[in-house]
Design a protein that fits this description.
This protein is an alpha+beta fold. It has a domain of about 130 residues. Helices cover about 35% and strands about 25% of the residues. The chain has 18 helices and 24 strands. It has a 20-stranded antiparallel β-sheet, with helices on both faces. The protein has a four-stranded antiparallel β-sheet with strand order 21-22-23-24, with helices on both faces. A hairpin with a 2-residue loop joins strand 2 and strand 3. The longest helix has about 45 residues. The chain is globular.
Length: about 725
């Protein structure tokens, strides 16, 4: 699946090749199915940096830092596999899991429709399997096909792989391989004929979308299998598990489906839960009224982002409270007592004096007129049912907080009533402390406006007022066009101006890219400061994005449409991230090898003790004596930080026989740690990594106590 992940980000809008849906050869009762539909070669790549092999350069550097140069052949195979597989249809399926006769059992398979490339894919996969220790593999005949099989270390099932007709497949377990082979021979309908998958695909389908990636989850079967596995591992699940599954709404979901597609040149992501009405538990949270056009009228046309939704917080609290009570009746009194405790401390009841004051329409947005930095200009516009009660609650809250002993005499919280832009605004001022914000709010015709500064609130008030309102997002051609791609009756709608954020971030990304590309030169990689495309090219291919959620009688659907920054931009910045990670990865790799070396020293200490027990208390004259007598293997005398074949440890003869826990028995050659220190074995058997200066002191002390100062190593003199 690494190859699929690498190729899934290939830019372009070409149609998936015919027969891209492999669900027809997947068993109809599959628990999970992930399908990659495949893309043909792009007719006009945006730049050479959009090629998958360019994408893999940063990955190669990263993996080399983790695995050393020995990883290079596997990386080359992975790069070629991405090239070969990325343009071809593939499917990954989880068919079964549970506890078998001798341990956990998983049946899963990956199948690729590769045509004439099946043989080459098999060679590449075998190379990668060899790199992780699965060498060889014996030939087996299964469902009339000849496959290879190799046991998976530590698992009761084998890995099977091979080609059949125009497909390559690799599986965990022979049962999964057999199921896929039967599906290939039958040619359908398989999972594609499953009514649940058909319903989900119909629900998410756009007008002209061409699927790229999809995922299907058979929720009831997954829950049943998961419960059976947990029951087998734990000896029995408590009854509360069924109550949680019911009240969380999981039992009400028949299937889930995700689909990533191209629709008229933009990327479309759809997620669907088949959860028919009447819905229970937390699924009731999606029982909200749809948004109206008027809910967007006051959002400025040049807004950076907007999130609007209908959400009755008071009703949501009731649902949550009732859900907890049905799961465990003892929880309800605890929650009520906690609410009363909060009221006693803050002077307001979170539900009665806060949530009940609001209606169900909420709009969060930011715009250039707010003058904010990043998200500091954001404002929340909410429907308010009881403005006076809300104002009273805010005053009480501030008074109670101000009286807390921790603030007494240090910070004074004050509510300031004033006008900003000619409009009344209330602000919370932290008098006596350098707090860079002044949370502010105001009301206008049944709506409350909340922001971090009085200026941002005043700007939003001006937009709320039809007399002073500027152009609205609701009238924006881009927003109207993209909103038409959403399902009707959305409960929530989001909007992001990707171009605006790109203009803001591009200068920073340019400097980041140049600096970090230059850093890659330290690791033997040729810097490519031109890897990131021009801003104008990115702006031409970037569109705003909208998203929305709706619920009907059959289920709940989320759709997100738009084109964010494209592949070359990501490639240009990936190298920078790699250059930052490399030193940390190299350090982690060094620490890992240091840990292995410390374990070798502990083994030397244990071998010395065994030798002394069997030789009348005499300790070995040298490390060779331990190896020759079979107390140690030769590999235990080699540190992974040293050249292969070397003896990496120095043994101090007589230190162990002195029976002094503070004397050094053996140590790792300090030059292997670049003068940072070394691993040291002491007389009591413990191993410690010591800084170089401290290490020299303990070595000198050891030779002094043994009366052999003349033998002191040169580095410790």
């Amino acid at each position: 699946m690494c190859a699929l992940a690498g190729s899934a980000c290939i830019p372009g809008g070409a149609r998936a090749e015919a027969g891209g849906d492999l669900a027809q050869i997947i068993p109809a009762d599959a628990l999970i199915y992930v399908g990659w539909w495949g893309l043909p070669p792009s007719e006009a790549p945006e730049s050479e940096h959009a090629r998958p092999d360019s994408w893999l350069q940063a990955l190669a550097v990263l993996a080399r830092a983790q695995g050393g140069e020995e990883a290079a052949p596997a990386l080359a195979q992975l790069a070629e596999l991405c090239q070969v597989v990325g343009r071809r249809p593939a499917g990954l399926a989880l068919l079964d899991f549970g506890v078998g006769a001798i341990g956990p059992d998983v049946q899963a398979a990956l199948v690729i429709r590769a045509g004439p490339q099946t043989g080459r894919i098999e060679e590449l996969v075998e190379g990668l399997l060899t790199s992780i220790g699965l060498k060889g593999g014996e030939r087996i005949d299964l469902e009339g096909a000849s496959l290879k099989s190799a046991p998976l270390p530590g698992a009761p099932f084998a890995v099977c792989w091979g080609t059949h007709k125009e497909h390559f497949l690799i599986s965990l377990g022979s049962q999964a391989a057999g199921s896929l082979l039967r599906g290939i021979d039958a040619g359908g309908p398989g999972l594609a004929g499953n009514p649940e998958l058909q319903l989900c695909r119909e629900a998410v389908a756009g007008k002209n979308d061409r699927p790229l990636l999809s995922a299907f989850f058979n929720v009831p079967k997954l829950v049943k299998k998961g419960k059976a596995l947990a029951d087998a591992l734990t000896g029995g699940l408590p009854p509360v598990v069924d109550a949680v599954l019911e009240e969380a709404g999981i039992n009400g979901v028949r299937s889930k489906y995700l689909q990533l597609s191209l629709d008229e040149g933009v990327i479309r992501l759809a997620a669907y839960a088949h959860a028919p009405r009447p819905r229970k538990g937390l699924l009731q949270l999606w029982e909200q009224k749809p948004l109206a056009d008027a809910d967007f009228d006051f959002v400025p046309a040049d807004t950076y982002f907007m999130q609007a939704c209908n959400w009755d917080l008071s009703a949501t609290w009731r649902h949550l409270h009732e859900t907890l009570e049905r799961i465990d009746p003892t929880l309800s009194p605890l929650v009520n007592n906690f609410m009363e405790m909060v009221k006693g401390l803050l002077g307001i009841h979170p539900v009665d004096d806060l949530l009940n004051c609001f209606g169900d329409t909420w709009v969060l947005y930011d715009a250039p007129s707010h003058g904010g930095l990043f998200f500091t200009g954001s404002v929340l516009v909410a429907e308010v049912k009881d403005a006076e009660r809300l104002r009273s609650g805010c005053r009480t809250f501030v008074q109670r907080i101000s009286a807390l002993p921790v603030l007494e005499g240090k910070v004074k919280l004050e509510l300031r009533q004033g006008k900003c832009g000619g409009r009344p605004v209330t602000s919370l001022v932290f008098s006596g402390a350098p707090v860079p914000v002044a949370p502010s709010w105001a009301t206008f015709e049944g709506r409350g406006v909340f922001g971090l500064f009085p200026q941002t609130v005043a700007a939003a008030l001006a937009q709320l007022d039809p007399q002073s309102r500027q152009s609205s997002l609701a009238g924006s051609p881009d927003f109207k066009r993209l909103r038409r791609t959403l399902p009707p009756g959305t409960l929530s709608t989001s909007y992001v101006d990707n171009a605006a954020y790109l203009r803001f971030a591009y200068p920073l990304l340019l400097m980041w890219n140049c600096g970090q590309q230059a850093m890659l030169g330290r690791f033997g990689v040729d810097p490519d400061v031109a890897a990131m495309p021009m801003l104008s090219a990115q702006l031409r291919s970037t569109t705003p994005a909208v998203g929305g959620t709706m619920a009907d009688e059959k289920g709940i659907l989320f759709v997100h449409v738009g084109r964010p920054v494209t592949a070359p931009m990501v490639v240009g910045t990936t190298a920078g991230a790699v250059s930052i990670l490399l030193p940390s990865l190299q350090r982690a790799r060094h620490l890992s090898k240091r840990t292995v070396s410390a374990a070798n020293l502990r083994g030397i200490g244990q071998a010395c003790s065994l030798y002394a027990d069997e030789h009348d208390g005499r300790w070995p004259p040298d490390l060779d004596a331990l190896r020759d007598a079979g107390y140690l293997e030769a590999k235990q005398l080699w540190s992974p930080l040293d050249e292969p074949g070397n003896v990496s440890y120095v043994y101090i003869t007589g230190a162990g026989a002195a029976d002094d826990p503070e004397l050094v028995v053996a140590y790792e050659k300090p030059e292997l740690h670049r003068a940072q220190g070394t691993n040291v074995l002491f007389g009591d058997g413990h191993v410690e990594f010591m800084p170089l200066g401290t290490f020299k002191d303990v070595v000198r002390r050891t030779y002094q106590r043994l009366g052999r100062e003349s033998e002191l190593p040169e580095f410790a003199r």
